[in-house]
Design brief:
By secondary structure, the protein is of the alpha+beta class. The protein folds into three domains: about 110 residues, no CATH class; about 90 residues, DNA polymerase, domain 1 (Orthogonal Bundle); about 180 residues, hpI Integrase, Chain A, CATH 1.10.443.10. Helices cover about 45% and strands about 10% of the residues. The protein has 16 helices and seven strands. The strands form two sheets. A five-stranded antiparallel sheet has the order 1-2-3-4-5. Strands 6-7 form a two-stranded antiparallel sheet.
Amino acid sequence: MQIITFAGSKVIKSRMKNKEKEDWSVGIYRDPRTKDKKGRNPIKLRVTYKRHSRLYKTKFHLTKDDFEKVMGAKPREKYKDTRREIDACERNAVEILKGLRSFSFEVFRRRLFTDSGDQGNIFSAFKEYIAELDEQDRIGNSSVYTAAMNSLKEFHPGEDLQFYEITPSFLKRYEKWMVERVEKQHSVTTVAIYARCIRRLYNRAIRNSNAKLEEYPFGREADQYQIPEPKNIKKALSIVEIQKIFTYDPADSDVKRYSRDLWVFSYLCNGINMKDICLLRYSDLTQDSIVFNRAKTIHTKKKNRSIEIVRTPEINAIIKKWGQKPVAPSMYIFPVLVDNLTSKQQQGKIRQATKQVNKYIRLIAGELKISSDVTTYTARHSFATILKRAGVNISYISEALGHADLKTTQGYLGSFESQEKKKIAKHLTNFPVTKIKVTLPAPQLN
């Protein structure tokens, strides 16, 4: 092993005798991009392989001056102890790299944090995954996992909960606690969402050798925990109800008119959701269509298929009425977002816009005597269901919705056709109307 010291930083280099026969190096890096409340920078491990480098967090935070003293040729007093700990951290990284059959940044990361003895703890797994989601700007998913972690912490106070402790019995008690809480009841849907978060992290832990497959608590067997499946509630409106919303006159209320128009825009634009509406820019418009990629699938699909929407006169009228001026390709169409927002700020504005539209479309539905709970999500389901009832091929509906496969679309539409099923059932007794002569028995006289 060769140790090279330069510019206040030390790099440990070693020859890996693997198939590639390439050099890798481990170094200590002071990250000047962020500071804690004491003005200290995080100290990170820097691993370099084939001219590509990745940074990995450590527990250390140092100022620039302290970092130079710690990493100097002969650190003194308190700096000497810190140097010893950092050296131990480096040696651990080197040993992990030596033990890899073939180099992989991802495998190294897993081994590094597994060796810290922390990854058997589901709360640590939550924090690591949430950090990954934040780094990828998947703020919506990050919020869901954060809420699930906080709920689990409230049920199981403290920071120590090992994966092997999450048994079917534990999960059933957790579900009962969530559903029966008096001060803040959770719906079965919320229970299912949080349980799926736990299941995903458990699966990751098994893949990373932080949990045992034989202790996996989820499944459909009698002795396993089965995540509850919320009942599918009819969310689609009838064509008559949709017509009522189209022809509704909000009088002098601009906010009602704006909310109604965005709901109608969603319905006409393949059931586009509010986040994608808010993210639309004028550059997404062509002469005859709107072309965009769903924000929801950007991070999950290797080939993220674009969705194309035909621009009808009604769609064009809404854009003309509410679109921001002056028109520029880089400008957001609707007045919700501005440039240079952080991902969390952007998410907050989208949520606020969605909340406003839902509030006023519910008020409108109430005035129109529509019994269903009408929200922006109803527009998407209504788009798909109206097309299906009209006999449109399900492959087209699937493509329009941006679903990856037909199974998703079939499950999406499956619960909306109870009225159609009743009509079909009537065919079983739809006998031709004919006069049938019935001979009655003669009345018995006393």
